[in-house]
């Protein structure tokens, strides 16, 4: 796999530039790997439960062709039966592998087969059992346990994502073991969505749990804020350098404390409507920005996903199984209250992602090019693909440059795909920079410096990861 330009001159330049980034350590400041994976360091389960069951990129594609997630082993929340035979799940994937032609899922999977597990044969019905057996044999070896792979992948920082009411026990176990991999570390990220979204079922109960954890009176709005600050302090002690906010929209609101307190009481009393919930979420983004000025956490904001759009899928299998859909997202006016208050303060860092590519040139690049606090995050989720990464560079660089972006983040739950995703991004950036060099728009030495910055130095700087390994 090259992913380099087809034109010969640019391809050679891209190869040279890629060599400057290829072996740099991996910085993964935004992701969703379960930290228990590394804390427990147990062998991975069978290949189906590593590559298929937890991967909603895979299960949603198969579901789109009429293959129910239950047949792929996706756990149910309604008590319905699901397939438990890993080999049967694997054979089903193999029989439908043609559905993934041209997709990043196929690219990542085949790259993992080849580069992590040394399996180069084509995947399909004829080879399914053979590859399943080879993978199973390797997964039983000590060299393929999570901690060994962490070291082999050359991961310097891996950030996981937890709710403020998570007990962080996996991170505590890693700390007690004194483990972060040679020269590496595993840190947490503060993700408070389920405590600021009144429309999320169980919100009041989670707020009560927050109060119990912190000893704060969360029956009052000031007590709620104090409880969140207390948990942020604990997350920072566990290594966190950023918070993560996945709101339905990018709306922000700068309310007076009395207005916010009234909304909060309405929510606790069950009287808040959808408009109230949106305003409260919007205001809490400004509150979190204020907290970030106090404690230094980098804010990440990734709006624009209509969660659980497939209601039947949600009813049967719950959240995060492929039922979410991107929507158009407005940023210029939505972010203005927050940016009016803090956007020119260089102490604040906001990394902004989108699922709406139409906003890159029109809104996001000009915003990032105009406010000291704002950086553009990498293409994620539906846009985390070779073409999506290329389009991102083409649409934002002329206005925002390279250094108002935050480098690459892999945003994955699939631990074994982390090096594949980073390598794809490095190859795409090499190709983009090669064109600038070939067109005499950038000297070769500056392009070489830039690709190393995009791959490694920028994410370390923007996410404040320059401290010593824990």
Automatic annotation (TrEMBL):
Record's keyword terms, sorted: Isomerase
PANTHER family: URONATE ISOMERASE
Enzyme Commission (EC) number: 5.3.1.12
Domain of life: Bacteria
Family the entry assigns: Belongs to the metallo-dependent hydrolases superfamily. Uronate isomerase family.
Pfam families reported in the protein's UniProt record: UxaC
GO molecular function, a single term: glucuronate isomerase activity
Protein name per its UniProtKB record: Uronate isomerase
Record-linked InterPro entries: Metal_Hydrolase, Uronate_isomerase
Catalysed reactions, semicolon-separated: D-glucuronate = D-fructuronate
Pathway named in the protein's UniProt entry: Carbohydrate metabolism; pentose and glucuronate interconversion
SUPFAM superfamilies noted in UniProt: Metallo-dependent hydrolases
């Amino acid at each position: 796999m090259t992913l380099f330009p087809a034109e010969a001159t640019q391809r050679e330049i891209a190869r040279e530039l890629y060599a400057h980034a290829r072996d740099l350590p991996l910085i993964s400041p935004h992701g969703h790997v379960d930290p228990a994976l590394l804390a427990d360091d147990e062998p991975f389960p069978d290949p189906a439960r590593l590559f298929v069951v937890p991967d909603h990129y895979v299960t949603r594609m198969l579901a789109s062709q009429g293959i129910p997630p239950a047949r792929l082993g996706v756990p149910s929340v309604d008590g319905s039966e699901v397939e438990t035979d890993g080999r049967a799940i694997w054979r089903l994937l193999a029989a439908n592998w043609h559905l993934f032609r041209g997709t990043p899922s196929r690219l990542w999977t085949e790259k993992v087969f080849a580069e992590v597990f040394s399996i180069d044969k084509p995947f399909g019905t004829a080879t399914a059992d053979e590859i399943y057996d080879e993978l199973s044999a390797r997964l039983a070896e000590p060299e393929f346990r999570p901690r060994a792979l962490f070291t082999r992948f050359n991961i310097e920082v891996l950030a996981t994502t937890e709710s403020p009411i998570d007990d962080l026990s996996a991170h505590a176990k890693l700390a007690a073991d004194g483990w972060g991999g040679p020269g590496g570390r595993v840190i947490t990220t503060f993700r408070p969505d389920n405590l600021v979204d009144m429309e999320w079922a169980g919100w009041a109960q989670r707020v009560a749990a927050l109060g119990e954890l912190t000893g704060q009176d969360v029956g009052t709005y000031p007590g709620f804020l104090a409880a969140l600050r207390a948990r942020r302090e604990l997350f920072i002690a566990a290594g966190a350098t950023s918070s993560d906010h996945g709101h339905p929209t990018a709306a922000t609101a700068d309310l007076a404390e009395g207005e916010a307190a009234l909304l909060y009481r309405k929510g606790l009393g069950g009287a808040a409507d959808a408009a109230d919930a949106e305003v409260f979420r919007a205001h809490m983004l400004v509150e979190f920005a204020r907290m970030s000025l106090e404690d230094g956490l980098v804010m990440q904001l990734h709006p624009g996903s209509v969660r659980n759009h497939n209601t039947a899928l949600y009813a049967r299998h719950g959240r995060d199984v492929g039922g979410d859909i991107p929507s158009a997202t407005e940023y210029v006016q939505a972010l203005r209250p927050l940016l009016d208050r803090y956007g020119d303060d260089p102490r604040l860092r906001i990394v902004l992602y989108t699922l709406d590519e139409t906003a890159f040139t029109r809104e996001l690049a000009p915003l990032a090019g105009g406010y000291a606090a704002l950086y553009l995050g990498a293409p994620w989720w539906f846009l985390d693909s070779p073409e999506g990464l290329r389009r991102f560079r083409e649409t934002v660089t002329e206005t925002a440059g390279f250094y108002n972006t935050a480098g690459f983040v892999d945003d994955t739950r699939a631990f074994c795909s982390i090096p594949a995703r980073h390598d794809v991004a490095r190859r795409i950036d090499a190709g983009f920079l090669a064109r600038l060099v070939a067109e005499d728009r950038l000297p070769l030495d500056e392009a070489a410096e830039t690709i190393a910055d995009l791959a490694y130095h920028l994410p370390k700087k923007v996410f404040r990861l320059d401290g010593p390994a824990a």
